[in-house]
Amino acid sequence: MEQYLVTGMSCAACQARVEKAVSKVPGVSSCSVSLLTNSMGVEGTASPADIIKAVTDAGYGASVKGADTSRKSSTLAKLAEQEEALKDHETPKLRKRLIVSLVFLIILMYFSMGHMMLGFPIPGFMEGNHIAMGLVQLLLSAIVMVINQKFFISGYKSLFHGAPNMDTLIALGSSAAFGYSTCMLFAMTNAQLAGNTEAVSKYMMEFYFESAAMILTLITVGKMLEAYSKGKTTNALKSLMKLAPKTANVIRGGAELTVSIDDVNKGDIFVVRPGENIPVDGVVIEGTSAVNESALTGESIPVDKAPGDEVSSATLNQSGFLKCEATRVGEDTTLSQIIQMVSDAAATKAPVARLADKISGIFVPAVIAIAIVTIIVWLIIGRTVGFSLARGICVLVVSCPCALGLATPVAIMVGNGVGAKNGILFKNAEALQETGNVQIVALDKTGTITSGEPKVTDIVAAEGVSEDELLSLAFALEQKSEHPLAKAVLKYAEDKGLTPAEVEDFKALPGNGLTAVMDGAVLSGGNEAFIKTVTTVPADIHSAFLRLAEDGKTPLFFAKDKELMGIIAVADTMKDDSAEAIRQLKNMGIHVVMLTGDNEQTAKAVGREAGVSEVVAGVKPDGKESVIRQLQQYGKVAMVGDGINDAPALTRADIGIAIGAGTDVAIDAADVVVMKSSLMDVAAAIRLSRRTYRNIVENLFWALIYNVLLIPAAAGVYSGLGIVMNPMLGAAAMSLSSFCVCMNALRLNLIKVYNPSRDRKQKKSLNLLEGTKLLAGSAEESETNITEKSERGVTMEKVMKINGMMCEHCQARVKGALEQVEGVASADVSHETGFAKLSLSKEVADDVLTKAVVDAGYEVVGIL
Fold this sequence. Notes:
The chain is 49% helix and 19% strand. It is built from 31 helices and 30 strands. The strands form 6 sheets. A 7-stranded mixed beta sheet has the order 14-26-25-24-15-22-23, sandwiched between helices. Helix 9 packs parallel to helix 28 (727-746). It is elongated and about 135 Å long. 47% of the residues are buried.
């Protein structure tokens, strides 16, 4: 995606205009414009020159992001440019404009309202001189209009380009008030020269100079508040950019030099002292330390680093001296990728924004038309020109397309920022919206639910043998083995402080067995089949073997001189928080499926411990994508994985979630990246997505209902009830609308993404019965309460997936059709999820159930 900076946009109509113009350029496949960051993302083969020309022809300015950045200084210069682009330049300008406007507005209000209504004193030469009073008001309001000339330049320029925007509405409203008042001033002058004092007083009451100035000042207040709150929404991204180190201490020619971060090359050796930030991604080659990685992962507990461990840019070295080798520099560092990801996400649009875009495209012309019609209707009815014009001006200034345009991007920006602070990265706005809508989550077992590293879990010593004796024997035998299970035994023994004895004549035998000689004694080790060729297995040890195997662990037998010494069980243990994360996902109404290549017994044991809804065992690496495709028949699927063989499944899924510790291939294939490699972050990502989407809906509702209610009020529709809006009140309301939308989005900063107390099942949740399996061949058995069901005369249950139900009428029709089938005790049907849960009093053939639904006019996708 090519990024551009766009200048001159002031509201959602401008955004829609630019997007429409660029989308028409040949070679542009997609275009997304952000009013929040004044940026544009374009995909396709069109040249930058053609794209910039299209924007310019539409009446705006554009430039390629980073166009002036040299290759050598690309990293720092690009960050500086991005930081400058996000910096709040508008608030100081608007504050200065507002202060000056207020000074002249207060003087104007003193003469127009203070003297006439409250009797405030004025200079003697103006007493009774209505022309002088009118000229003072004209002059003061003209000064305020000149101060706020940007509204008129932008508004009329857009109008002449055939793309009126919010500034056009303000300019038209203020100009109409000023122009009408000026005409009344000339008419009053003629009346005074003619000596018609009654007409003079009448014309004096028709002045709207203060309205023209007040409209501009109040809109400026709103613009300043909007700019300030918009600036706050990008705080998270600006904080990330400030983390980027500017220099690094590298070793060159045997000497330590301090160089710019752009001069660090891959393979350079750099040093980091306590209290310094790590400049680039690298691997520790000397020293140990505790590194605070909270800037990237959100985890406040420091991580111990030793030679061979990886370190990331912008993390803080807290205790020891580290010497590292640079592995990723410039734009390839983890921090740079995170910044780019968050920035790209802000430049994209959520699907829910399409409605706002469609409305914004026609909003301003529609408002202008309504204002004209309002004036004409009131004139026809017989009201004065002043009253009719005031109603039209009110319609112009109360309308707010900005709130519509900001409703989605401000929430997306804040939501992305909250995610980034917690180590959860959404690659685009669509991913942020759709993650919360998933109905099924498929989890890869190894490295996702489990740690991915075998560990010793149990030691069962034979009678007369101590655990230390068994472990010492196994340590000696396994020290020369390269098998992953052997490494688990070695690590466990080393952690216990044991020293391995020397062995001779080590052999790895066919059939998963090892032999060696230690101090003249023959040691043997391996699986059950191998050990039975060496010695006999006592009943108590065999019982322990069966229990361990049933729990999904791998029992390793050890013998000395053909005498069984005991069992050491090894297993890929579950991460500490996996079970709790899965429980939270299920509480959110999500059907959790575990995919694994393990045998059914092992998979069943892990699935039971983890608490997943369903287990699919024996899945080959290239078969995960096929399983995801099958699951998609029943709802929106998220795939969570970390390995290279997960990439096809991550791509196939509606939402791919990559565990951050996984490979780059997996991360590239995913829509969401979890930095901390914790399933708790998967639940947090879904929680954040749901809250962000709810915030967007609230913003859109406010923006729409505001205009729906206030435009008729401004037009005088409610005047029969005594409700007549003053143009100044309309301007005040319009000023606050965008500010309210931005402030509502900022509430997302208060979200506690790891707090499950507010989790709820969505209407679109599958709501399957406990134990229901979506896929045939799952290793987990359905669990049903037989006693309870027999009391109701229910012998079995079935679940049907049905397409075509659109409303509650459809739902009732399907329910009636199914309950008329003999043997169907009850049918729980949902048109929202497309599922029907049947309780049967006897066996009913699938084709009978299918026929009942098809005859009712709907399609059966499958029966579980």
